[in-house]
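Researcher: Let's run the pair from yesterday's discussion. Sequence first, then tokens, for each.
Model: Starting with the first of the pair.
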Amino acid sequence: MARIIQSKGLCGLLLLARGSRAYCWSSVAKTPFRSSLRATTTTDGSSEIALNPIVASVKVSKTVEIFSLVKQMEADGEKVTSLCVGEPDFLPPKAVLDAATAAILKGETRYTAVTGTADLRNAIATDLKRRKGIEYDPRTEIIVGNGAKQCVFQGVLATCGKGDAVIIPAPYWPSYPEMAALVGAESIILETTADSGYLATPEKLRETLENHSNAKLLILCNPSNPTGGVYRQEQLEAIAAVIKDYPNVAVLADEIYERLVYEGDCPSFANIDGMFCRTMTINGFSKAYAMTGMRLGYVAAPQKLAKAITTVQSQLTSCAGSISQAAGVAALMQVTDEELAENVRVMKEKRDFVLGELEKMPGVSVAMPPNGAFYVLPDVSGYFSGDDTELCLQLLKSQKLALVPGSSFGAPGTVRLSYATSFEELTIAMDKLAKFLSDNCQ
């Protein structure tokens, strides 16, 4: 029988014990590990090694932490239903798989240029011009990286340092503040409201900029993870009008979910008048093309910023994998818009199913139905006195259902569900959640 021992939520030590085994979350180790109940300290002397204070202050991603724990539980025979990771359940398109296979068989396994192969950079530039109306020079303004996450971090590192501030609208992807911390910058959380669809407003942005003269970067996630909110053209133009009054502020536009929009479109911030020269556009292949494990993303930016990001990447990872890059060319040049639209249609059906099930659960509300990405952030503050971490821990203990506490996204009292899984898994998950909430209704 599983039991949970919790100390200060996920920041303390979580034990999901089964017999003499235990699964641990540790604020010291920062990573999940397996041990006996008595083996709670290391014996190799590593604890005596002082860590870089910056690294020691960075929190581990709760999504990754929970996902790692789920995988360990599954490896030990536990059956866990997980809606914690944003990973499509469908395979990459056949053209992508065929291109990766062909690249391997042709021996395309060597290093590429730091910025990526010419074929992939040209394909990215062509795609951005065709769909977004933005022209980038593939030789000097596009850098291919090992996933969009690396590209985001390199954009933060290239523009910010000690004493600078990064403005991050909440709710936010949990990695944004930690990336700012890694470069020595301060995170300024711009609070949003349900009335605005949890999107930043120009009034709030101006107020934040006026109060923080050290602001160097605004991170704008569109569509939003974790809310699924989508900024429209007029909303982006209103934000750009504010940014124009602060010439020292750059914008990191994280648009990794831009091909997963259910109604309307998702404009690119770099295409707003006057914004090209200060915008780093982040995109990739994990979400729309289900190429999560291939770790392929890119940043498109004006030459000055692109050169700085290239310098950073040259000292970190050099280039992205050559096989993944060949697959990326096929994704952009061979996969049709119609094929991607079918995936969006199916994802919309999953969204509608989840919203319908949540609506039936007492004390659960969704302020703004998601219009993009594949997440929903319901308010569950009526349970466990609003302690979303305790709710998720007890849910995992009693129902073997893994969700992510909304507090890790800057949205206490909520939980994040990813519906990028099969209908079968979603049905099981919604039944488990309904039963759990019914059993714990206050």
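Model: Moving on to the second of the pair.
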Amino acid sequence: HTDKNRRMAPKKATKGKKEILAGNRETLRFYGTLIATANGVYLLLRILWMYDSFTFWHGLGLCVLLACYGLSYYFMSSAAKTTYTESGVLSDVGIDLNLEGGVPEHFKDLVILTAGVQVMTVLSDFFWLLLLAAPVYAVYLLWDSVIHPWMTAGSESTEMDEKTKKKMAKKERKMHRVIYK
């Protein structure tokens, strides 16, 4: 088999700086609108319309929601901060906020969770409990990506068992055979 016969996986297209910049601006605009809409709905329904049921604990919960919004949006806007050279040429666009699996994705999820909880708490105070999903998920991510790999790093055996050694030796001998036709 030659290299020409092998199928190469298609190379994933990369985005240019201007595309990343436009995508980041659109993402920040979307999440800013989401935050403003959720706060507007909460303000109109919970505080103005249902003011008699608004207690100290609702105010404290609102402060927690605003902190989640503020920290998440601040992180996303800081990560997507652009820099220009002295001549005005785009130098750096920061992190692509729309990249799958990156840290900004977790902050976007936090904004969505917070907005959902904020709007749903107008219907029932039990929806405040959904906010517990954020720290539970954070602990899971910490365990899965940091703690567990660190704890198990030395426990995996690097030596091969006897059966695996025999299989590898057989494959090596087979590769070095001369085929006569």
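Researcher: Give me one sentence on the second I can quote.
Model: The chain has a mean pLDDT of 83.
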